[in-house]
TrEMBL record:
Pfam families: AA_permease
Taxonomic lineage of the native organism: Bacteria, Bacillati, Actinomycetota, Actinomycetes, Kitasatosporales
Membrane topology: Multi-pass membrane protein
Listed name of the protein: APC family permease
Location(s) in or outside the cell: Membrane
Length: 483
């Protein structure tokens, strides 16, 4: 068991439980963060209404792009043993100022992706209560109860969280497999199963750019495999395997499920159905092909899907905060690890308090939990994480130029170069189609897009300040742990 911590603020004491996570455990964390059922039932209908029957290809293209990114990313993971994930990788490749800026951007990204989802938890639970019982419940108490539940699950040991996420993930993917099976067994809408959506004529349409933007957003969090390096069994193998499994599963599964839903309605009718009632598309399909009981179950599992995503992001945030505390950038107290559960429990408590403050503030302002709390907080987080993937891809070849290694040129130069081009295009697509994500005014959208670059610039300024006022912290930032 490792008892090594890093950075100038590290002290002797309990550490994260090394060797507790296998490949499947880490894959559960990152796939759960993506919330496959919520993404499919809540977002895929919009992608179909915009991109038509070629929408499944958008998810495949996004998966291929991120798989290319993973080639260089995982190659670097075998050489960088720091628990800092994105910021450690970027520091090694592009220097400490970029790494410190990346650390702030990561905290924005993961917190934005998690805290906004408490609004979705409230609205999803409202919808479920109304659909099953005809009851109207307020969203704020549900969101606050969710905060407490996620805090407790994060407070417990990491293997407890992995087991819980495993159960929830099997349940939410299982209901989608059940829907797909019903459609395939009954042969679709009567037109027969068709692969026309994969033809270039249906893919190369104006709406495909928007579909790609949605598709990249659907993979958010897959790269967090490296955050769990310190708790993984044989991390040099486990982390790359979990990364490839996560991105391959998400890409193929998303495309397959979207294709089967198109078959459920037929090529000619699905776009109209998705446009007129996007929220009901999946429920209508599963009622027709499986039964009303399955639609009721899907309502419940969407709530558990949201909870799984919240827990996955909460655990990732806590480990980032732990790493930055050990670096001396965040308060030392956040680096404390629970003696029994071996969890970063104070970081988890601080993150829960932050989430509660944001949720209550939006509620006090009379904001809509979905259109404002979810979308306005999630969007900067999504952009921040996509920007981090791009910066990490740029960092890979610079890092390998500085060290002796046995990696091939495909992993260290070609794949990162291709990923840089593709991720740049993805970031542009998301930024230029931000109105599709938020439905907000141009003024609000400009602010939402500008948050991530502003935080990165703020991080650069922080790096300069640390170099002047706390040189020992600056020089030790993202240093390789001994041993």
């Amino acid at each position: 068991m490792s008892t090594t911590t890093q950075g100038p603020a590290a002290e002797a004491g309990p550490t994260l439980r090394s060797g507790s996570l296998g490949t499947a455990d880490i894959a559960f964390f990152v796939v759960s963060a993506a919330a496959p059922l919520t993404v499919m039932a809540g977002v895929a209908p919009i992608a179909i209404s915009l991109g038509g029957i070629g929408a499944p290809v958008g998810y495949l293209l996004a998966g291929i792009t991120l798989a290319v990114f993973a080639v260089g990313f995982t190659a670097m993971s075998r050489h960088v043993r720091s628990g800092g994930a994105f910021y450690a990788y970027i520091t090694r490749g592009l220097g400490r100022p970029a790494g410190i800026a990346a650390a702030l951007l990561a905290m924005l990204g993961y917190n934005g992706m998690e805290i906004g989802v408490y609004g979705l938890l409230g609205t999803a639970t409202q919808d479920t209560a109304h659909a099953l019982f005809g009851a109207d419940i307020p969203w704020l108490p549900v969101s606050l109860a969710g905060l407490l539940l996620i805090w407790y699950a994060g407070y417990r040991s990491i293997d407890f969280g992995a087991k819980l996420l495993g159960v929830l993930l099997v349940a939410e993917t299982g209901i989608l497999v059940l829907l797909a099976g019903g459609v395939l067994i009954k042969g679709g809408s009567g037109e027969g199963l068709s692969l026309d959506g994969f033809a270039p004529g249906h893919v190369l349409v104006p709406g495909t750019a928007a579909v790609l933007a949605f598709a990249f957003a659907a993979f958010t969090g897959f790269e967090s495999t490296v955050i769990y390096r310190r708790e993984a069994r044989n991390p040099d193998r486990t982390v790359p395997r979990a990364t490839y499994i996560a991105v391959a599963f998400l890409g193929l599964f998303y495309a397959f499920v979207v294709w089967t839903v198109i078959q459920a309605f037929g090529d000619d009718a699905v776009v109209k159905a998705a446009g007129s009632d996007p929220a009901g598309l999946f429920f209508s399909a599963i009622t027709t092909y499986v039964g009303g009981w399955a639609a009721d179950l899907m309502h419940v599992l969407i709530v558990t899907s949201v909870l799984a995503s919240l827990l996955a992001f909460h655990n990732a945030i806590n480990r980032y905060a732990l790493g930055l505390s050990e670096e001396g950038v965040l308060p030392k107290a956040l680096g404390r690890v629970h003696g029994k559960h071996r969890s970063p429990y104070l970081a988890g408590a601080a993150q829960t308090v932050l989430g509660a403050v944001v949720v209550v503030a939006f509620a006090a302002a009379g904001a809509d939990p979905y259109a404002q709390l979810l979308l306005w907080v999630n969007t900067p987080g999504m952009i921040g994480l996509l920007a981090l993937q791009l910066i990490a891809a740029i960092a890979v070849p610079f890092y390998f130029r500085r060290i002796s290694h046995g990696e091939g040129v495909l992993r260290t130069v070609v794949a990162p170069g291709v990923a840089t081009v593709l991720l740049s295009a993805a970031l542009v697509l998301v930024a230029t189609h931000i109105d599709v994500f938020t439905g907000a005014s141009p003024f609000v959208n400009t602010i939402l897009v500008g948050v991530a670059p502003a935080v990165f610039v703020l991080g650069l300024a922080l790096a300069m300040r640390l170099r002047r006022s706390r040189p020992e912290v600056y020089e030790g930032f993202a240093a390789e742990p001994p041993g």
